[in-house]
Amino acid sequence: MKIKNIQLDSVDSTNNWAKEHVNEFDKSELTIITANVQTAGRGRFQRTWVSPKGENIYTTFYFTLPTNSMHIGSLAQLMTLSIAEVLLNEDLLPKIRWPNDVVLNEKKVAGVLCEMSSKNGTYDCFIGAGINVNFDKKTLEAIDKPATSLNLETDRIFSRDDLLEKLQTQFLNDLEIFKEKGFTPFLCEYENLMAYIGKTVICKNDQQEWIGTCHSLSNEGQLNVCLPNGELVTLSSAEISLQVSEQ
Ligand code: BTN
């Protein structure tokens, strides 16, 4: 698959921009839109993604997949794993907070926003990734949840271009495998990187809340949580956090 890079200076959100321009993209390519700053960066659950100029990676990967592709619900996990793999290669010790967060020392360093729409048997996939690279401490502290940046955790200055290039190569490679075999080849590596396994977690989505032990990853990349009555529930979408007494 060929990669087409589109570099923008300022946009509201790279995911929004990609959706607005989708008809201009070559559907056989992996189109990657990157911005220097986002004025209305978006996170999961309608949250804001703080996106100051020049410090971090704000990018959206656009490609198409047939609607009958295997494990399509695990695409966000695929990108999350690709980011974690890039950080591992930088000698860092990332963990994945299921489904889409990459954390370093229990603070979030990257997030993934996966949006899809289907037409005529094809999914348009917009996988947005935000990676805090050289985010300054002051701005980070203003974020309401524990967050960090690569620079803050390591005292190293990272090149955004270099990291982005590594992420493109990693994701393209992972996507080719995913297209043939779904998420199955990635289950083991993803589960090994998962934070909170064996710990009591609170899982919330728009409708419901569960408290139980973070048990494992299902065969399709969902989260298995063991409830206090021994029942195993499988969640496809939620946000998880450690129960406070265990933090
Ligand atoms: C999350 O953790 O809630 C997901 C954050 C995703 C942020 C990225 S930055 C690039 C792309 N454009 C957006 O508006 N959001 C995603």
Shape: globular
Return Rg in Å.
18 Å
Helix fraction, binned, reads 10-25%
For the record, give the distance between the C-alpha atoms at the N and C termini, rounded to a whole number.
Answer: 43 Å
Q: Which structural class do you get from the secondary structure elements?
A: alpha+beta
**Count of helix runs:** 6
Small molecules (ligands, ions, cofactors) in the structure: biotin
Could you name the ranges where pLDDT drops below 50 across 5 or more consecutive residues? none
Strand order of the largest sheet: 1-2-3-7-6-5-4
Question: How does this model look, in words?
Answer:
The chain is built from six helices and twelve strands. Strand 10 and strand 11 form a beta hairpin. A seven-stranded mixed beta sheet has the order 1-2-3-7-6-5-4, with helices on both faces. A five-stranded antiparallel beta sheet has the order 11-10-9-8-12. With 247 residues, the chain is an alpha+beta fold. It binds biotin. Biotin binds next to helix 1, strand 3, strand 6 and strand 7.
